[in-house]
Amino acid sequence: DEHSREALRACGVPAPRIHVAADPAVLVSPGPPEGAERWLRESGVSDAPRPWVAMNIRPWYRFGREREDADAEAMQALIRNASQVVRGIRDQLGGTAVLLPFQRMYDDDLEVADSVLAAAGECGALIAQPPAAPSDLSAALARFDLSVGMRMHFLLLSLAAGVPFVALTYSEKS
């Protein structure tokens, strides 16, 4: 984006060497259906009631896993609200929420998914490790009825899969 272009120029990168382009994730095509079907079976999704809602909720952490004090209250509100959505998917729609943790290195999506499910109580929701290959993940997401997420690449792969999605914003890009 333009902010990145300006940051590179400020670092001394010659302008002719800078090319602003879309994120490569927008070019991902869904992989073969057999891989998606296998993942759906192995993760337990294929046996779950429909509609299926894929969810990716991320924490607000700095690098080094230091929680920002200002975001602690907002994080608890997110967990409460996400747990109500997860429970509503079952109680109001008769379906299944499938939480897909994307990142475990600098901040831990699995930790948040566990917190959301703990707050939701017994409601048939699942946590499933997403397929490693973006094309396989896109093929799997294509089987879902809706995606709800925070991470850009989760949303881009949902877009590539042709599944409707809801983007949850948490921070403006500066």
Q: Would you give an account of this structure?
A:
This protein is about 40% helix and about 10% strand. It is α/β, with parallel strands linked by helices and about 170 residues long. A 5-stranded parallel β-sheet has the order 3-2-1-4-5, sandwiched between helices. The chain is globular.
List the helices and strands and how they pair.
Blueprint: H1 2-10, H2 33-43, E1 52-56, H3 69-91, E2 96-99, H4 109-120, E3 126-127, H5 134-141, E4 146-149, H6 152-161, E5 165-167
Parallel strand pairs: 1-2, 1-4, 2-3, 4-5
Helix pairs in contact: 2-5, 3-4, 5-6
Question: Measured on Cα atoms, how large is the radius of gyration?
Answer: 18 Å
Mean pLDDT: 88
Biggest sheet statistics: 5 strands, parallel
Strand proportion, as a percent range, falls in 5-15%
Poorly predicted segments: none
The general outline is: globular
Q: What structural category arises from helix and sheet content? A: alpha/beta
Tally of DSSP β-strands = 5
Helix run count = 6
Distance N to C terminus: 11 Å
Q: What strand line-up does the widest sheet have? A: 3-2-1-4-5
**Helix fraction bin:** 40-55%
Following the backbone from N to C, one meets helices and strands in this order, namely HHEHEHEHEHE
Keywords, please?
single chain; 174 residues; alpha/beta; five-stranded parallel beta sheet; 6 helices
Outline of the structure:
It contains six helices and five strands; from the N terminus they run H-H-E-H-E-H-E-H-E-H-E. Helix 2 crosses helix 5 and helix 5 packs across helix 6.
